Amino acid sequence: MKTLCKILGGSHLYHLNNENSDIDHRGVFMHTDPAFILGTKRHDETRRQNEDEDTVIKELNHFAALL
After folding, report:
1. Angle at 27 (CA atoms; ends 21, 31), nearest 5 degrees
2. pLDDT at residue 5, as a whole number
3. Which residues face 25 on adjacent strands?
4. pTM
5. Which of 14, 36, 39, 43 is buried most, with the most CB atoms less than 10 Å from its CB?
6. Residue 39: which pLDDT band, with cuts at 50, 70 and 90?
7. Which of 44, 16, 42 has the alpha carbon at shortest distance from 28?
8. How far apart are CA 54 and CA 49, in angstroms?
9. Beta strand 45-49 with 53-59: parallel, antiparallel or unpaired?
10. Residue 29, Cβ density class (10 Å: 0-12 exposed, 13-18 middle, ≥19 buried)
11. Average pLDDT, integer, range 53-57
């Protein structure tokens, strides 16, 4: 898996954050494993959430389909 881009999102992006705001990251990745590239395995999203951080990174083809 290779991350193509990762940006800051949410309240920090719009400069509306306060001392209680978590950090939101959004991004796009592409697979490097041939099984995922050929479609024999599938993994469209990586998500990590805790009280300090909220990260969602979508797979390139999945991201394009969302557009």
Report:
1. 145
2. 94
3. 8, 55
4. 0.77
5. 36
6. confident
7. 44
8. 4
9. antiparallel
10. buried
11. 93
Residue 28's pLDDT band (boundaries 50, 70, 90)?
A: very high
Which residue is listed with tokens 């969302």? 66
Query: Which tens digit of pLDDT belongs to each residue from 5-27?
Result: 999 998 889 999 998 889 999 99
Whether the Cβ atoms of residue 7 and residue 27 lie closer than 8 Å to each other: yes
What does the alpha-carbon distance between residue 39 and residue 45 come to, in Å, rounded to a whole number?
15
Indicate the DSSP class of residue 3. E
- What tokens were used for 52? 């300090």
